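Sequence only, no structure available. Ideas?
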Amino acid sequence: MQIIKQVCTSTKEQVEMVEKLQEHELGDFLHGHLKDNRYLIVLDDVWSPADWSCLAKVSSDNPDCLGNVFPDGGKGSRILLTTRHKDVALQADARSVPQEMKMLSKQESWDLFQMVDKCNGLPLAIVVLGGLLSRNMSHTEWRKVHDNMSAYLAKEGSQTGVMTVLNLSYIDLPSYLKPCFLHLSLFPEDYVISTRKLFLLWIAEGFVLLEQAGQQSMKVTVEVYLNELVNRNLIQVVRMSVNARVVKCRVHDLVRELAIRKAKEQIFFGTHDIADPLSSSTSNSSKCRRQSIYSGMERYASVEHSTPYLRSLLFFKLGRETCRISQLDFIGKVLRVLDLEGVKVESLPSIVGKLIHLRYLGLRRTGLKLLPLSIGNLRSLQALDVNNLKQVPNVIWKIQNMRHLYMEGQEDDIPLQIDTLENLQVLSGITFKQWIQNNSSMLTCLWKLKLEGRCELVEGVEFSNSIAKLRSLKSLYLKTSDESSIPYLAMDSCLYLSKLEIKGYMQKLPATFQFPPNLSQLTLEACRLDCDPMPILEKLPNLLTLRLRAKSYLGEEMHVFANGFPQLKVLQLFELSNVINLHIEKGAMPWLMQLQCPFLTRIFGVDKLPNLVEVKLHNDVGSKMPFFIASSLFLMNFRFHKCHLYWDNSW
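Reply:
I predicted one. Tokens follow.
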């Protein structure tokens, strides 16, 4: 009705007639009015796909008025739609790429307003702050605002307050996203969150159930949840992978304050931070199911606690505080999540072996060298994340629910049975020797595998066969720690393997037909290849990303022939100090969009790359040539090509 009133010039009688129409008749009326006109209609802040469908779709029997309320009469009419949610824009027009509003840079924010540090580029916060300071205020009042900016921006007395708008975003969240959003309140302010860890925590918390995941894995489902929160601007992306997946993220200060407020209302969590006024009181903490500890960790662990409801306990090491925990006997036996990452732990307390409900145990960067044998009693454990142990006790095979096992950096290469873990999906840090002693055919769910250590006694054919038995494998990382070569590997039977990373000496590359047929990402490092790898690699039909890192190739010339790399989009050459020339023939790499290489390398044929949009030049370690000279050498071949050029002299 509002749209009709704005686009139609009507008499009083016509307005009264329109107000009596049914919903589908209103659609007919608007369609008929717009059909022969050229129009621009702006729909501001459409909240959901259902709202768009209600606005745009006609439910009419009129054969001339089926489908969209807004007719396309070929007259150049347009609809401008703004929304907080990307899926609304995609539903409105799946053929167009939505124009996403980016956060302002600090300089842009400074140009708009001086007091920007607490706004962190959030335009909404800057607007609210501007409205506050537009009043006739004294210098003292301005100083008070500056010192208490967060409190002013979060003040709910005004309907235009940031917190009020953010609260609407929270209310609009579907039920399955609300616990994920509240969980973000556990992390410290400005903390950069690893999405790998976040996914494991969400799964351990029970935010995703098997019946919710359906045919897809829980990891896929939690990644969908994360992307929904990103699209709603409740999570900020810090770093993306080359295949456009979120790797690191964080939460804006004001969004975090909202999460904390909502979490406290629901007694979702408590925090312990001596310097944080938002920390929960002792009385509230006893009722909380989740606790995060930011500071005063040793003091917290030494105080007697009553935590009968505690399900999750997360420790964060911040600043230079020395964090040593001698005992955690206050932990209740119903704990599901225990994360001690970064906290100095000499040995695990005996209580840990009795946590039969524990699903996630994080021990990375704790300095811990040994795990107790009682770790095998944790029958509910789904994820164990630890590194740099002296040895892993051979009791892991008892933990039948284990799905994610990270144990990189073992010092002693002792036998370790893991082939009983039929639910295992990710295995990272097992040694070559340990791996070959297991029956890999039992690991039917394993999709990610990282092998490391010495491999001089590993027989090539046997090793290759052990990999070929992994029918679900999607990602494989091989890293040798000695001068022995990577074992022989034929991967042509690994139909789902799409990501391969090799770090270590290789006598030669496998033939093209021995690579996985659906390989899309390949990284080589320290392979010390004498022959140009491009003639073999350029024939991989589905390769999208190729990274050749330090000492992967020792030669001086690289040549990409016509029709080579038919699908490649990203080519990264890092620290290939010997490579002088890269020759690209016409017709090679037709879809290449990003090229990274040492700026000492001369590239011939860069003008023959029709879709190249970004070139990054970096200074390899040990380079003696002045930067401006090397840049000029590259520009002689680059000056007529239209794409973005970046100089990176920080390497």
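The radius of gyration is 29 Å.
Hope that gets you unstuck.
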